[in-house]
Structure to design on (837 residues):
């Protein structure tokens, strides 16, 4: 009997900053093993949703349940240890630490407790899986852009998540790097991790996502299979503006 | 690999034994100089372990040293010395823990402001207490402690502090502190309980400062609030740690040793102008540093 | 009746606290400098007024003709030659803040040290216009009233300048986003220097006003820097009216504490209030959301 109850269930999530409603009544069910796309124009609230789910910002109300456990109200580090991991919109590499050390942080604190030596071995294996084995000793500040992205991914994976939230992780990649990135995300899913990806790169959304939801001005305006959603005239309208739709 | 570690340990043990024998071999003045050095080595190392790594700059070193001094001044008549020397760091820990809980959950600015004013605040409270209780600001310490005893106590403290910092730097805690300093948001989302780490390490390092203050106070017979809470101490410790190097366990000690000598010389030659000279030198050095003051912090990597 | 007098006197001092917080807002909010040596300009203003009055019988208010320009130019020089290189070298805002804190901490010792060497550590004071005046049934000293009126007047002028003039609007733009301000051709370095210098000048004024009715010594700089910091945090960085109100609140809290508990515990009251705000509403009592 397959488990079809959602792994991540978001209900009625909302947040206002002063007079501005950044997120209103956001609902989402994420089934285990799915890749869900979250798209929408800039400023529509996508990253805010991510920040609310990961505990970076306090929600005004609503519920976020991971396998039934309520996440709202927990501090960020507890949510990480509850197996929700994330990457950041602007890559946040620790420049003074090596690649290995950057990823080690995730393994040491975000996953099951472990001693330093076994942790290092786990990290080396992980670096190998994302293609960073040769860069293990390089300081973070010297890495190329795509390698920095890999490090962020590896660090998130090191926390042994059940759900991985990617914030525009494929942004700024050239076509061949994009293919590498898409393949990596597929590999992550094949390891049993559920993915929610905020993206603007529609090619990736089409290639990867089982389910897509669209936000505009804080509200959900569409949800469904990628092809259907991307053909929705309402979606085109919020992306392109009324004049060009 | 094991041989290299064994050799290192061997050297360390011999060095400590030699240092412990120093008071038997040199003049009382030299012992006094060494006492200052050992005290500042502990203070600078403790300061660097928290403020240097997490970038939460504490300006309260003088406050915690003063807490140690006054614990001895108030309790040494009533309790045996070992008990008093145990209470001093406990008081420092408790106060730092309270400050940490209130300010370290928020951005670093609040912490700096709080530590900036802490020495003044405690000084005012002590003055108020003294005026109401004893009607005088003067306190007398009548503990009979030889220079050798103070020296050995401070040597032991310095050894424990440096060994502790060395060991913890290699442990997960060391990593956690570095990550908090480099990017606290990453730290939170990598599963680090940043508040707990910051508060506990701040409290522990402040306890060390109070212990040093308590031991140091044994060399004086007279203390008053202005002597006990001298903000210049916070500044000196800061300079020693920054110029000695924050990334390495030995770094602050390497900064403390020459600077203690230099400051002894300066304050001996220009007793009233010492603070001015210190401030000016620091400002001038910073002016010429290419990466600013915090550039010094980034230059040093782990051993 | 006496309680009312205490509260009133607290309000009057609070006007001063509001003023010094405004000056710090200029230095921290616009010029983005956390200046720990801020209070030294106040100390300088107080001593200048003291020496002008006791040595040459010159009105303390007239001494401002000397101390204010000196404070203005001095702060401008510090910003232009000492702090601007830090701005250029800092990798990001956090690093800049740390650098500024450390450098101004050093400056504090230079100025405090100079004052201690020149004038010693004893408390000074003088009597000027200490005539009793009847206000709302209570008796207050005229000098306190005068100081309050001057502080409020200056604060309102500043507020108006920032709101209603082009220069002020440009400064507020810098406070919100210095990069964006630069992009719309606002001369950020020059205006930041101006804001910083004005902050120092305000402190000189505050020092003169305060010296009329409070005693002071070479070491009070730290205390007033602290008060300014605490008031700015309570009122909200960049919120002018909020800082004025927070200043009044601090003054009244101190007066109540002095009256009900003990006059020797003013710093403790400052910190208690600070802690309370931190625990309850760290973004400031008067800021929105």
């Amino acid at each position: 009997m397959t488990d079809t109850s959602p792994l991540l269930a978001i209900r009625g999530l909302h947040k206002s900053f002063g007079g501005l409603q950044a997120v209103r009544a956001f609902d989402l069910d994420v089934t285990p093993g799915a890749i869900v796309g979250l798209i929408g124009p800039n400023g529509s609230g996508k990253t805010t949703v991510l920040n609310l789910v990961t505990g970076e910002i306090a929600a005004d109300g609503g519920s976020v349940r991971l396998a039934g456990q309520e996440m709202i109200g927990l501090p960020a580090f507890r949510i990480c240890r509850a197996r929700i991991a994330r990457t950041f919109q602007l890559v946040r590499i620790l420049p003074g630490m090596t690649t290995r050390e950057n990823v080690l942080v995730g393994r040491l604190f975000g996953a099951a407790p472990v001693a330093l030596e076994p942790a290092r071995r786990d990290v080396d294996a992980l670096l190998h899986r994302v293609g960073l084995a040769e860069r293990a000793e390089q300081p973070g500040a010297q890495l190329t852009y795509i390698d920095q992205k890999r490090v962020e991914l590896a660090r998130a994976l090191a926390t042994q998540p059940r759900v991985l939230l990617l914030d525009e992780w494929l942004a700024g990649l050239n076509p061949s790097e994009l293919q590498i990135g898409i393949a990596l995300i597929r590999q992550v899913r094949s390891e049993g991790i559920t993915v929610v990806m905020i993206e603007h790169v529609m090619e990736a959304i089409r290639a990867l996502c089982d389910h897509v939801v669209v936000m505009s001005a804080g509200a959900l305006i569409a949800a469904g299979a990628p092809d259907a959603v991307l053909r929705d005239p309402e979606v085109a309208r919020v992306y392109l503006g009324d004049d060009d739709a | 690999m094991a041989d290299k570690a064994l050799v290192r340990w061997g050297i360390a043990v011999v060095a400590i034994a030699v240092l412990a024998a120093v008071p038997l071999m040199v003049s009382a003045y030299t012992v006094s100089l060494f006492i200052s050095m050992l005290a500042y080595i502990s203070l600078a190392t403790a300061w660097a372990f928290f403020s240097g790594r997490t970038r939460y700059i504490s300006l309260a070193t003088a406050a915690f040293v003063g807490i140690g001094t006054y614990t001895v001044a108030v309790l040494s008549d009533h309790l045996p010395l070992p008990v008093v020397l145990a209470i001093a760091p406990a008081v420092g820990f408790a106060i730092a823990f309270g400050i940490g809980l209130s300010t370290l959950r928020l951005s670093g600015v609040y912490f700096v402001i709080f530590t900036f004013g802490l020495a003044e605040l405690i000084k005012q409270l002590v003055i108020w207490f003294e005026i109401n209780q004893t009607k005088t600001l003067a306190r007398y310490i009548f503990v009979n402690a030889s220079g050798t005893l103070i020296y050995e106590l401070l040597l032991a403290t310095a050894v424990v502090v440096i060994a502790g910092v060395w060991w913890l730097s290699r442990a997960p805690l060391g990593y956690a502190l570095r990550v908090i300093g480099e990017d606290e948001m990453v730290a939170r989302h990598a599963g680090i309980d940043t508040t707990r780490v910051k508060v506990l390490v701040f409290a522990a390092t402040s306890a060390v400062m109070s212990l040093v203050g308590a031991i140091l106070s044994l060399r004086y017979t007279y203390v008053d609030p202005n002597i006990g809470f001298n903000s210049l101490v916070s500044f000196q410790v800061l300079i020693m740690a920054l110029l000695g190097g924050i990334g390495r366990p030995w770094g602050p000690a390497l900064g403390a040793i020459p600077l203690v000598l230099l400051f002894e010389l300066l304050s001996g030659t220009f007793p009233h102008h010492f603070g001015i000279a210190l401030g000016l030198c620091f400002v001038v050095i910073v002016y010429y540093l290419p990466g600013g003051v915090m550039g010094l912090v980034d230059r040093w990597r782990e051993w | 009746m006496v309680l009312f007098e205490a509260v009133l006197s607290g309000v009057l001092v609070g006007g001063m606290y509001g003023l010094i917080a405004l000056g710090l807002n200029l230095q921290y909010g616009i010029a983005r400098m956390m200046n720990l040596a801020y209070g030294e300009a106040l100390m300088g203003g107080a001593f200048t007024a003291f020496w002008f009055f006791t040595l040459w019988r010159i009105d303390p208010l007239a001494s401002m003709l000397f101390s204010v320009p000196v404070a203005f130019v001095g702060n401008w020089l510090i910003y232009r030659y000492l702090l601007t290189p830090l701005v250029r070298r800092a990798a990001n805002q956090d690093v800049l803040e740390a650098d500024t804190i450390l450098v101004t901490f050093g400056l504090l010792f230079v100025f405090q040290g100079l004052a201690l060497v020149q004038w010693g550590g004893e408390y000074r004071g003088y009597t000027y216009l200490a005539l009793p005046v009847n206000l709302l049934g209570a008796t207050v000293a005229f000098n306190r009233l005068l100081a309050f009126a001057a502080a409020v007047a200056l604060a309102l002028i500043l507020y108006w300048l920032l709101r209603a003039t082009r220069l002020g609007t440009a400064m507020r733009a810098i406070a919100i986003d210095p990069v964006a301000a630069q992009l719309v051709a606002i001369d950020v370095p020059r205006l930041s220097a101006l804001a910083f210098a004005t902050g120092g000048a305000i402190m000189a004024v505050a020092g003169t006003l305060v010296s009329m009715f409070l005693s002071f010594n070479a070491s009070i700089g730290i205390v007033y820097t602290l008060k300014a910091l605490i008031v700015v945090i309570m009122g909200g960085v960049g919120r002018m009216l909020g800082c004025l109100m927070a200043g009044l609140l601090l003054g009244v809290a101190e007066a109540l504490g002095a009256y009900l508990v003990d006059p020797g515990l003013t710093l403790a009251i400052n910190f208690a209030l600070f802690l309370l705000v931190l625990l309850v509403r760290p973004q400031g009592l008067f800021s929105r959301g």
Summary: The radius of gyration of chain A is 18 Å. Chain A has a mean pLDDT of 90. The interface with chain B takes residues 54-56, 75-77, 80-81, 85-86, 88, 92, 94-97, 101, 104-106, 108-111, 116, 155, 159 of chain A (CB under 8 Å).
